[in-house]
Amino acid sequence: MSGRVRIVDVASLAGVSTATVSRALSAPETVGRATRDRVMEAVRATGYRVNGAARDLRQQRARSLLILAPNLANTFFSRIFSAIQEEASAAGLAVQISDSRIGREKLVSLGYDGRADGIVLLDGAIDPDVVNGWRLPMIQLCEWNEAYRAPRIGIDNAAAARMAVEHLADLCHRSVLHVSGPDGNVLAVTRREGFSDGVAARGIAGTTLAGDFTLEAGACAARRWAELRPRPTGVFCASDECALGFISECAALGFGVPDDVSVVGFDDIDFAHRFLPALTTIRQPREALGRAAAKALVNLLGLAQVADPGDPAIAPTIVVRSSTAPPPTDDSRVATITLD
Amino acid sequence: MSGRVRIVDVASLAGVSTATVSRALSAPETVGRATRDRVMEAVRATGYRVNGAARDLRQQRARSLLILAPNLANTFFSRIFSAIQEEASAAGLAVQISDSRIGREKLVSLGYDGRADGIVLLDGAIDPDVVNGWRLPMIQLCEWNEAYRAPRIGIDNAAAARMAVEHLADLCHRSVLHVSGPDGNVLAVTRREGFSDGVAARGIAGTTLAGDFTLEAGACAARRWAELRPRPTGVFCASDECALGFISECAALGFGVPDDVSVVGFDDIDFAHRFLPALTTIRQPREALGRAAAKALVNLLGLAQVADPGDPAIAPTIVVRSSTAPPPTDDSRVATITLD
């Protein structure tokens, strides 16, 4: 029966206008509670369902944002998705998600299939021809690509990496290692540049190992670090996952953090403050980033006048915890043993 | 210009039929590479975009699944979202996500707004009147509610909790603590029942503290555990986050895991095997769960004949790592000191 019921049937049963039925379903907060209850009762009794496609055809929009991310299984994105969904929902928009590894053909069609009004793009490694071909309003978030024709929101990754080096240098580390992200990734490149600038500015020794932001890349880097002579006493990992993998593997190899080596992460994921030791890291304000991107996109779509999301470069901060300390010295070790 | 271009213009420029243009955009893998390239070039040259709403109106469907989760920021869901999206994409469906805490009115309208063809429901605590009012094909995943009229996919949570107790009992723990999930939650209730059955079956002492699955609930439980006399020597937490918070706070209080207390988690999140100590835990096969739910929903929607996703109760397993060991005894401690 539900396919045959029209809005006028619901309105007549509820004793209200069709406009009220429409408002009660699409913007329930604009209708009084008693009326809303009456309408919903009539909707249930009749089995009415909005023909979303017909309404969208009239309005010529999908009422939906698409979030495109390089790996949906990466837990870094959870808080970003949550913040975007909250802002989108407030603007009456649904949120669609897609992994960007769905293949070139499917990627191309994302911009032409009419399912999304705009895109929050978390991947800077998609072919610019594909991205610029979409002709939809877009915001680049966290990652970026100079060739994409879309505004960017994100932290200053080079400045954040310099902060990590500054912290290690302030603790008197003279030789530091950077475990970077993968070669083609814009975040990896920018953080590596910040690391290089930082060690040059402080006149200390800097080495880089290529990783890929994962736990296992951190563990692998720890095994390579253990073989270095002399071993750098401070390590800056390009992600918290990498840092936690590094520390975990250090423990397996018999090295203590921060007694034998200090480790700084990047992101401040939820586990960072509960790891053993609690991780010193660069904090990316993920919720603020998600909110800013959603607001900027809603603005671009002209769907709501929302407050300006502020400076697109949201400030990173360093959170100092227990994984960093002054470097070990032979003197200090002898002293400890003697005093015990 | 893009609003005025019709599919026939693209077809004529590319020298193909309108049906070929349509296939090249909606199912690119069904069209040969050379033809596809010609069509996409014509699409770009003309600025053509599919009118998704018009097509959906003809087909009377949204071509979209909705995933409804109790908290999008919970990293437990990342792998589930990723697996659902992969299966949905293969079936030509978009994936919409929503937090279920958007308020009753917005929740009600999710089932009537025509944006989704079906729902994967990860929340068992929504009012059954709302859920059953939706009249959309639905699959309950992980959490469930007996009152929802929808098939369920998930692990046997009681059996999994009994496994955790068995493991501790096998290690000779005689007094064990369960840090449960929140009172109203069906997973919390079922795991607590499994814990109680397990301790009764093994004739050991069991105590329960109420938590809420979070890191901080685990830390709080550790402070309360430290005050118990005698202290249970084994702890089973209802989630890995809770277990990691418990272990982290134990360290802050001066207790070692597993030397002073053994800890078992639940889920096997990505960090579990890299925590210090590596966490013994119940593994939920999240990717398999997500895939099974997506396949079952695609079947319900009649969009594709996919292989039966198999038994809806996907088997949990226990993964034994370093956070569990035999309980400390005064004897063993004396022996250790003597032998050193």
UniProtKB/TrEMBL annotation, chains A, B:
Top-level taxon: Bacteria
Keywords tagged on the record: DNA-binding, Transcription, Transcription regulation
Stretches the record annotates as Disordered: 321-340
GO MF annotations in UniProt: DNA-binding transcription factor activity; transcription cis-regulatory region binding
Signal peptide feature range: none
Span of domain HTH lacI-type: 5-59
UniProt keyword Oxidoreductase present: no
Gene3D superfamilies attached to this UniProt entry: 3.40.50.2300, lambda repressor-like DNA-binding domains
PANTHER family: HTH-TYPE TRANSCRIPTIONAL REGULATOR GALS, LACI-RELATED TRANSCRIPTIONAL REPRESSOR
Name the UniProt record assigns to this protein: LacI family transcriptional regulator
Native organism: Palleronia aestuarii
